Amino acid sequence: xxxxxxxxxxxxxxxxxxxxxxxxxxxxxxxxxxxxxxxxxxxxxxxxxxxxxxxxxxxxxxxxxxxxxxxxxxxxxxxxxxxxxxxxxxxxxxxxxxxxxxxxxxxxxxxxxxxxxxxxxxxxxxxxxxxxxxxxxxxxxxxxxxxxxxxxxxxxxxxxxxxxxxxxxxxxxxxxxxxxxxxxxxxxxxxxxxxxxxxxxxxxxxxxxxxxxxxxxxxxxxxxxxxxxxxxxxxxxxxxxxxxxxxxxxxxxxxxxxxxxxxxxxxxxxxxxxxxxxxxxxxxxxxxxxxxxxxxxxxxxxxxxxxxxxxxxxxxxxxxxxxxxxxxxxxxxxxxxxxxxxxxxxxxxxxxxxxxxxxxxxxxxxxxxxxxxxxxxxxxxxxxxxxxxxxxxxxxxxxxxxxxxxxxxxxxxxxxxxxxxxxxxxxxxxxxxxxxxxxxxxxxxxxxxxxxxxxxxxxxxxxxxxxxxxxxxxxxxxxxxxxxxxxxxxxxxxxxxxxxxxxxxxxxxxxxxxxxxxxxxxxxxxxxxxxxxxxxxxxxxxxxxxxxxxxxxxxxxxxxxxxxxxxxxxxxxxxxxxxxxxxxxxxxxxxxxxxxxxxxxxxxxxxxxxxxxxxxxxxxxxxxxxxxxxxxxxxxxxxxxxxxxxxxxxxxxxxxxxxxxxxxxxxxxxxxxxxxxxxxxxxxxxxxxxxxxxxxxxxxxxxxxxxxxxxxxxxxxxxxxxxxxxxxxxxxxxxxxxxxxxxxxxxxxxxxxxxxxxxxxxxxxxxxxxxxxxxxxxxxxxxxxxxxxxxxxxxxxxxxxxxxxxxxxxxxxxxxxxxxxxxxxxxxxxxxxxxxxxxxxxxxxxxxxxxxxxxxxxxxxxxxxxxxxxxxxxxxxxxxxxxxxxxxxxxxxxxxxxxxxxxxxxxxxxxxxxxxxxxxxxxxxxxxxxxxxxxxxxxxxxxxxxxxxxxxxxxxxxxxxxxxxxxxxxxxxxxxxxxxxxxxxxxxxxxxxxxxxxxxxxxxxxxxxxxxxxxxxxxxxxxxxxxxxxxxx
Amino acid sequence: xxxxxxxxxxxxxxxxxxxxxxxxxxxxxxxxxxxxxxxxxxxxxxxxxxxxxxxxxxxxxxxxxxxxxxxxxxxxxxxxxxxxxxxxxxxxxxxxxxxxxxxxxxxxxxxxxxxxxxxxxxxxxxxxxxxxxxxxxxxxxxxxxxxxxxxxxxxxxxxxxxxxxxxxxxxxxxxxxxxxxxxxxxxxxxxxxxxxxxxxxxxxxxxxxxxxxxxxxxxxxxxxxxxxxxxxxxxxxxxxxxxxxxxxxxxxxxxxxxxxxxxxxxxxxxxxxxxxxxxxxxxxxxxxxxxxxxxxxxxxxxxxxxxxxxxxxxxxxxxxxxxxxxxxxxxxxxxxxxxxxxxxxxxxxxxxxxxxxxxxxxxxxxxxxxxxxxxxxxxxxxxxxxxxxxxxxxxxxxxxxxxxxxxxxxxxxxxxxxxxxxxxxxxxxxxxxxxxxxxxxxxxxxxxxxxxxxxxx
Lengths: 1033, 457
Fold this sequence. Notes:
A: Immunoglobulin-like, 5-stranded mixed sheet, 56 strands, about 50% strand, globular, B: mainly alpha, Serine Threonine Protein Phosphatase 5, Tetratricopeptide repeat, two-stranded antiparallel sheet, about 50% helix
């Protein structure tokens, strides 16, 4: 048949607007084009050829070329639709129905309207099987885990890929544990994101090789081809942050011990004025000299909001502009975005300037060039967290005097330069800490790529791409002269340089074999080179005040530097065989050669296979109830290499003693016979569309086994090492995921959508290594987070109450509960299930969506509760403190034993009586009930030695997000040259609807590592409320 | 491409090889820091023997410890002490330098002794050999002490002042003659440690030393000690007092020194800021009661001990003389116990620069005289004073000699008892469960109050 030129126009079904940038191709060939700014295209085809019309975010269409040479095509916007096109591994767009695994995609609007400064947080509750943990405060790190932890000791967070370029998401925590540095993917500006595709685990991600075991998050940025009108889009967003949770404090007793307090110098010169606890006198207004009274007795009263008042309302301003345009031979999009955040902690701030340029240039009809560059400059002054005296925030407030008027601390030096503080034994004034002991962080990052695509012959094209992620980061860590505990202060400069290059060549082949079969083949190779450098210098004691240079030092500088380099060569291939429009078989294979493994184990191969079958098409069973049904399944295996330099033992240097250098054998016994880790995963699922897609259901079940893990096993120090690097250990993860979409109401003006996602993961550590029973993932004091054989991943192991066979707590002769001599498993941190439910309502131009998410099961150890109970600041320490709180009245006999004063027993003349007696409920060693009276402070302090007392259920339900948006009517805006305008009100983390742990947000952690389930004096989390404006010209 | 990948993985951050002198310095410094530092000295043994007391955060002084409290001696002793010395022994054998080997054996023996003195049964025969023993067995305390004695005998034989020179010795500035004296003095200490259990063996060890023509530490100038330097290589006690104010001198020792009008009182204690008196703090107070005494009305340890350059003393001449006095009193040697006892006191006073007149006055006191009818009491009391600051050794000797009679802690958590050992680090329960369980089965509950093998009464 004759070829003919066919022209057409593609419009959006809902509003008739033309859609630019739609890919139109002839199936089984590589003849293809894109629609222009007016949605028009022209293509050469033969009658009976199948035209394939694909655009991300829309349901794909196929139609047969007829004699007519001008055709009109309407595309339907797909929201979780069944025939949508999604981005898959190596950035290849595919129809979702052809995939044998689960993939879930988020659109621009899901991410950018209710913005978070850390991109990851905006995914919370929206994708089944994905767990986000926001660590603490309003500027910290966030952790993302897909389908549970598959590596016992390694990184369990997914690989991030932006437009085909793998990018870094580390936290770089080497130097200073006193700040929670944000993970580096938070550099990405959410306004630039077109879509985010979550590949859940090895089945979807096998082509990415080594780093796919934990899944991949594919980010596609906006391109110029979608430009409409002038192609200028302006976005402005302002949000305000306030504390979501803060501990509940008692306001009946102030600073001191034994009910006594009087301030002289705040370091023991007065009566208990060096004590940083609240076991002091009643806050009843009697007159006591205090820190701000110059020795004059003033009323001793509560300041119930003294901690809350330290925090401010934070705000974030986010302003961006994007310009895009396209012509016959090119398209481009440039965006600039500025983020300016002031945190809830005084003097904490963050700013980001982001520039992104995406361009395409069609050199010849066969040769296309794409280039992109994303430059991000991030600078932050991070709030102090953690437990260091010089820089912590909540440490000081959890060891605190409840009478302290924090307002009076705002000036931290008096006219004579003397420090003003409530306690001078252990702390510096909290405002001094916030304003003087700062950490400045600056990161400059450039993510860039260049890509050439050449259409060799019909059906065969070649693609070459090199992509690079480079950043340098410098941290300036200042501890001021005169800081309590660090009298000379210190200054540290910590610098990081990271670079990763991926250079890839690929051949794509597509062929329509006959009327029924269609084949897509891909063959490629990749070279990855990663270098990491860290250079840290510290002046441990400053010579003079207020000069932050490294040379201003009393002591020799403390220096360290690390240089790591890693290289991986890979070849890979994939094949997709399609039968008619309903059966697909996909195969992939990859082989890696990694520099980090010994020569004999360096090469490793891994395959995957998956298939999908559209039942409704195959058996022609479409009807009014069932309009779509798909079955899918697959199996895959991926390997994983080690970090660099793990093969040969070495000796490290420490600073010389006098003029004698010192050398120590390394902490880890390395392994010259290391092998790659392997994860094998099987997955099956089905998708259903019912009642004309008014009900959509997607269900997956998976089972993965990770074997031969590279474990840096903790060993007894008596072996001479702290760790031994081995291959060993198996962890099994199995679970289910379900997504349900329902549209209960859909009329011309009103739509109500419900989207529910649910996931449940069960992990089990099946074995470790040669009889080793547990592997430490994290630690806080005596609480360890372990991977223990036979237990779910992440068991919490700590001291428990000693109990008799009947289960009663054993109380010692001194009246305090006894700890069991051996530590016990007190729970696990991993949740039983996660769920999210989004209700969206659209009425004409107004839309409202509400997201509630739940984290059910799992435990958390709360150091805030443990410490706050010890120090008597928490409201939970009130019962028993004084007769008014139920305390028993007693006196102490000659032996110092408490004797209760009752109607029958009176105190001897002259004896002091107390009214804070408590009896710990439990049994003595002989089985009798304990009736020894102890003081309330002894009672609560004794709980601090027993970790079990501070382990709580981590369950929570949060009102995560509310968005209310209004799209201005065209008639209002067209006259002023606008294409569209939307305004919206957004709120994030609005309320914790349910939780079981008091005083803290259960969604808290130290950092993004595997040692989760530990909270200790973390910064309060925040609620944000704000407005978003978007104009398109 | 193969070679490229192999070259890429050559570690540019550390050395594959060690220098013997660098290992030696590191082993001495690491172990001394933990021996003299917070967890093993200030926050535990010095409190148990009532040299020091706590004025803030008094839990340790009341014997309330988490099971991570005694991690350091274990981790640093084995991980940074013993293993580096094992590497040094390998290098010494390879280089044929018997002096490095001898020095390494002496230091390693000292560390093993610290471990068993504190915990009881500990890994010895299988320790520090990860390729063979991933979970080393815990040897019985008797076997550990006998092993140490045999190692020290070998060390004494390896050390040869005429042999190859060594470097990196920050204790004796590379003097092999002094190391021989250190080796023998340590042998004498260990022999007495087992003397209540194995008197014949103990006697034999001392006889062996004499047969070998061995000499002991013979002056304060030969004390085995690490002399700290200015910051950042300052004494760990000094480092702590720079920024914290948790410790005071114990009322027990202040009372004892006052009763004896001991000229060491102004060295051991400083005057309370407010009162200008020497006021000790009773051990084991509740936090509130301790705080109520007032930080400015109680005495800190003396300036001598808080100085940046204060030494960490491993074995002093005074201790050696007390040991010889005890060996004589037990009939292990023919020496004069009373005379050695008197010389020991004199050596201790000289160690702290006390004038000869004051020494004479002190030695003349009736309550300082040697009591031949109860050598344990005389030696126990005076050795306890002489070992001030050396918490771990004072703790071991108090348990063995049962003198002085210490005051029960005011609000101790052990029913009026004082700890007689350290508990094992909690993570041994997960890292070496078999070894740990066997040790507990053999030795008794893993509690502070479980008596060790050497501690007979």
